[in-house]
Design a protein that fits this description.
single chain, about 425 residues, alpha+beta, about 20% strand
Length: about 425
């Protein structure tokens, strides 16, 4: 928060100083010697911006904590808090790129072009809000993606008990000892969710994960490093980058249309974006091609680096089944569970026209194994007995039911086994 406040005050000072020195309304407000006021305010703003950029590095240096070991604790913030401290750097980098674009093409300061753009029409303020939102979303995706590299460099491996997926809250449940005091919940928005379901108690696993901070959510599991996630990140950054590029060229086009008759030989097009794009490709074709080529190369380099880091981290993950279950989890015992999800699987004929039910899937939650719930998946065959038994869950879920533990430590509905015995 301190970093963000320093950045906002510094940026406001710089904008005010530029307005007072380089715009006609500002020069009328601060004529002659009075112009020293916005000049000194602008200098103070640049100093505050420099402090906002350096402050995260200073805080991370003076407030280091232990980085490795299962009991690692840090007096500094977690990874997410640290990453948020660099939000000002993100906005500064975006503005520097815009300033370089303006200075190298039309030869004016980026703030001057921004003032021309904002004064042109009230709709530009809506575009400014879209720009800020797109920048924040891009930053959030970026720090989430950089988490992989951060974990590979600073994280350490620890073993956690995987208890399955809590579909009610869309979370993955992990525990150190099976105690509710040590429960850790990881967001369940993963691509391959089938890996989190178990068919029998003997399938419960202890998996090695990568911990990179002291907070419960500072955990990376193998499924978070999927190639689909990397591709999705690249696609979203291209979309958001396209939005920012569209707004930046629209601002530049507005300035070109305002000054085009006196400074540039240019005719306004149907939109300010088209005006700027056509003028840039005509006046600086080689530069535009080089920049596009460099951005494409940087994107592929980042994806290649992510793939290598992903491969390195996946090699450090491993899993094994739980060595010791509670003593009452034995063959023939009855155990109370809750049916929380129900679905029907269908098979199709070769012609693809006819389909029939294949089996029924149930997701059952057990609260009596440990202090945290365990989730098992159960498949029932398609027959009259099963359909009759399933009618009881038509009243709504969750539905409590007694289950019998089988020889292989899988589960079977107690009432259904009685009906089948008859």
């Amino acid at each position: 928060m301190l970093v963000l406040m320093t950045f906002m005050v510094g940026f406001a000072f710089v904008v005010f100083g530029h307005w007072g020195l380089h715009t006609r309304p500002g020069q009328q407000m601060f004529p002659e010697m009075a112009g020293m006021i916005p000049a000194f305010v602008q200098i103070a703003g640049y100093i505050l911006l420099a402090v906002a950029l350096v402050l995260p590095l200073v805080l991370s240096f003076f407030f280091k904590g232990s980085r490795r070991g299962d009991n690692a604790s840090s007096s500094a913030s977690s990874y997410w808090r640290k990453a948020q401290d660099y939000l000002p750097s993100w906005f500064v980098a975006l503005f520097v790129l815009f300033h370089v674009l303006c200075a190298s093409t039309v030869g004016v300061h980026g703030l001057t072009v921004a003032f021309f753009w904002l004064e042109s029409t009230p709709l530009t303020w809506v575009s400014l809000a879209v720009l800020v939102i797109a920048s924040l979303v891009g930053f959030a995706l970026f720090i989430d993606f950089v988490k992989i590299f951060y974990a590979a460099r600073w994280g350490w491996e620890t073993e956690l008990l995987f208890l399955g997926q809590d579909l009610e809250n869309n979370q993955i449940l992990l525990s150190r000892t099976g105690s509710e005091k040590n429960i850790q919940r990881v967001p369940g928005s993963l691509y391959d969710q089938g890996n989190w379901f178990f068919d029998r108690f003997s399938d419960l696993e202890c998996r090695t994960v990568n911990r990179f901070g002291s907070e419960p959510k500072d955990v990376i599991v193998a499924d978070e490093l999927s190639s689909k996630r990397i591709i999705m990140f690249a696609f979203m950054q291209i979309v958001l980058g396209g939005v920012l590029f569209l707004i930046a060229l629209s601002a530049l086009g507005t300035y070109l249309e305002a000054e085009g008759k006196t400074r540039f030989v240019i005719e306004p097009a149907e939109s300010s974006f088209v005006t700027a794009l056509s003028w840039l490709t005509t006046a600086f074709p080689l530069t535009v091609f080089t920049v596009a080529l460099m951005l494409t190369a940087c994107l592929f380099l980042l994806l290649h680096l992510a793939a290598r880091t992903q491969k390195n981290l996946l090699g450090r993950f491993r899993s094994k089944t739980v060595e010791k279950l509670p003593t009452f989890v034995t063959s023939g015992e009855r155990i109370l569970g809750e049916i929380i999800e129900y679905s029907v699987e269908q098979t199709h004929s070769e012609a693809g026209k006819n389909s029939k039910r294949s089996h029924h899937n149930l997701l059952v939650k057990f609260k009596c194994i440990w202090d945290v719930p365990v989730f098992l998946r159960l498949s029932l065959p398609e027959n009259g007995t099963t359909r009759t038994w399933l009618k009881r869950i038509d009243h709504g879920l969750p539905f409590g039911e007694q289950f019998i533990i089988q020889n292989d430590l899988s589960i079977w509905p107690h009432d259904l086994s009685i009906d089948q015995d008859r």
